[in-house]
Design brief:
It contains ten helices and 19 strands. With about 400 residues, the protein is α+β, with helices and mostly antiparallel strands. The chain folds into three domains: about 100 residues, OB fold (Dihydrolipoamide Acetyltransferase, E2P); about 60 residues, Irregular (Dihydrolipoamide Transferase); about 200 residues, Chloramphenicol acetyltransferase-like domain (Chloramphenicol Acetyltransferase). Strands 9, 12, 15, 16, 17, 18 and 19 form a seven-stranded mixed sheet that branches. Strands 1-8-6-3 form a four-stranded antiparallel sheet, with no helix packed on it. A four-stranded antiparallel sheet has the order 5-4-2-7, with no helix packed on it. A hairpin with a 2-residue loop joins strand 13 and strand 14. The longest helix has 18 residues. The relative contact order is 0.11.
Length: about 400
């Protein structure tokens, strides 16, 4: 008998929620076949079968919280010694007769049982593809107020029939906790500036086709902003530092976090040593990390070790905002929508594509002069991209 246990989930992550079983007890499994999915604070983790055999017992039900190395299931080896791999593969849903009920979203068995026992219907599912989990049914039965990891307990109140109560995912709970911790811990302050995007937009329009043809990736704005930030961080190193006890740790490298919105919440994939990368390498990395983020395939390692973050609220139409620090980082740049506005240039009024920039910083380690200078350097590099080539 081979045990299936919770794998290592990543640095500082000690527990996960069992989101989905892809197999049920008694099903044959092939070595390295994904048999269940765990949901951690940041990403989903698929658990593979360590050996081929029969999934003889499922120990942890869907919806339960499990710790690292907790027992999930047991696989009986040798029970399929006479079953060929091809026969096992042939039992996949693609080859079975069409059945509308089987093709529809399958709720957790434990949830189905509870709903039947309590004669409950129309429960909102929080699992994958809207699956109803055991916890969803328990919430519907007891109508509890969500336990919160931050702030004071909320006084229970009567649910309005027009309202819908949904348990926060672990990702959303973590986002809430970390953002509140950031506000409570850092002496956060935001400084603003605006940048004329004419030069970047002209340069991009001139070379985007050649860039795509040679590098196989689109030339976007993010590589310009990333390069500009790396340039400014060299001059103002405290923005690329963190506080550790009574020490300030200065980073002589840039691991850039690129905040990305996904269907399940905000994630911040990190591009390591971005200060050593070319425009093409940066664009390729951003595209690859973004695709993995949207599909929920980012690993914990890909979201750790960031030293500075860029958040682009402009893609959603934001004109101005104050981004919140991603601890333990000391700085985050907020990009916003590009809007044509009248500006004064050489005592004449001209219409230019303008963008507001915001730098939120930890005032415990970054002084106002350093923060303002950093933002000015970013502005200068974007308004005259030749500075990036000549390191000016």
């Amino acid at each position: 008998m081979t045990e299936v246990r919770v794998p290592t989930l990543g640095e500082s992550v000690t527990e996960a929620t069992l989101a989905t079983w892809f197999k049920k007890a008694g099903d044959p499994v092939i070595q390295d076949e994904m048999i269940c999915e765990l949901e951690t604070d940041k990403v989903t983790v698929e658990v593979a079968a360590p050996v081929s055999g029969i999934l003889s017992e499922i120990v942890a039900d869907e919806g339960v919280t499990v710790g690292v190395d907790a027992l999930l299931a047991q696989i009986s080896e040798g029970s399929i010694s006479n079953i060929k791999t091809e026969e096992i593969s042939a039992k996949t849903p693609d080859d079975t007769p069409s059945d509308p009920e089987k093709n529809s979203v399958k709720n957790a068995p434990s949830a189905e049982k509870l709903m039947e026992e309590n004669n409950i219907k129309n429960v909102s599912g929080t699992g994958r593809d809207g699956r109803i989990m055991k916890g969803d049914v328990l919430d519907a039965i007891a109508s509890p107020i969500l336990s919160q990891k931050i702030g004071s307990p909320v006084k229970p109140r009567q649910n309005d029939p027009r309202e819908e109560r949904v348990t926060m995912t672990r990702l959303r709970q973590t986002i809430a906790r970390r953002l509140k911790e950031s506000q409570n811990t850092a002496a956060m302050l935001t400084t603003y500036n605006e940048v004329d995007m004419t030069s970047v937009m002209d340069l991009r329009a001139e070379y985007k086709d050649m860039f795509m043809k040679k590098h196989g990736v689109k030339l976007g704005f993010m590589s310009f902003f990333t390069k500009a930030c790396c340039h400014a961080l060299k001059e103002i190193p405290e923005v690329n530092s963190e506080i550790d006890g009574n020490d300030v740790v200065y980073k002589n490298y840039v691991n850039m976090g690129i905040a990305a919105g996904t269907p399940t919440g905000l994630v911040v994939p990190v591009i390591n040593d971005v200060d050593q990368m070319s425009f093409a390498d940066i664009e390729k990395a951003i595209a690859e990390k973004g695709a993995r983020a949207r599909s929920g395939k980012l690993s914990m390692a890909e979201m750790q070790g960031g030293t500075f973050t860029i958040s682009n609220g402009g893609v959603y139409g934001s004109l101005m905002s104050s981004p919140i620090l991603n601890p333990p980082q000391s700085g985050i740049l907020g990009m916003h929508t590009i809007q044509k506005r009248p500006v004064v240039i050489n005592d004449n009024i001209a219409i230019r594509p303008m963008m507001y920039l915001a730098l939120s910083y930890d005032h415990r380690v970054v002084d106002g002069k350093g923060a303002v200078t950093f933002l000015v350097r970013v502005k200068e590099a974007l308004e005259d991209p030749r500075r990036l080539l000549m390191d000016l």
